[in-house]
Specification:
162 residues, alpha+beta, 2 domains, three-stranded antiparallel β-sheet, two-stranded antiparallel ribbon, 5 helices, 5 strands, 49% helix, globular
């Protein structure tokens, strides 16, 4: 089994999610991680953060990716050892990895929060502040005054709701 890391949006001008691409039993499987990095800080050849990354501590980030790779490999080989050398099917392996990385419970909580209007609005504001929500035509971060206007809208809506 081999594990390689790739960016979800390698040509984006903003932070991109990372996924692990796993090759086993002539199967290719993508597993999306919680880690994110800006494409400017990513070395596509080594599949790690650049040593001179400006937006993050590359040594710590690369160590985290190394640990993730180890956990994925251990999960795969543990499964093989307990199932007579057979590798897991992708959907089952995703469940195993979700349990290892505690992703399922966090994902479920996020989904539940997103189902409410207030959760959606707060997520929208958070994405504007972090820079992951950009101007749709200019592809630039939204201005602070726009963010403040949306915050004020939320406050007024909450006042009307009470």
């Amino acid at each position: 089994m081999t594990v390689r890391f790739y960016l979800k949006r390698p040509n984006a001008n903003r932070i991109s999610g990372i996924y692990a691409q796993l090759h086993f039993n002539q199967t290719v499987f993508k597993y999306y991680l919680l880690e994110k990095v800006h494409p400017e800080d990513w070395n596509f050849n080594t599949q790690r953060a650049k040593q001179n990354a400006t937006n993050l501590d590359s040594h710590e980030f690369n160590q985290c990716l190394k640990e993730i790779k180890g956990k994925i490999s251990n999960a795969f080989y543990n499964y093989q050892n307990t199932h007579n050398g057979q590798g897991p099917i992708p959907s089952l392996f995703k469940e195993i990895l979700d349990g290892i990385f505690n992703k399922q419970s966090q994902a479920r909580m996020d989904r539940e929060l997103q189902r409410t209007f207030w959760g959606f609005l707060q997520n929208f504001i958070d994405r504007m502040q972090s820079g992951t929500r950009v101007h749709l035509q200019k592809h630039t971060p939204l201005s602070q005054s726009t963010i403040n206007n949306v915050r004020n809208l939320k406050r007024h809506l909450l006042d009307m709701n009470e």
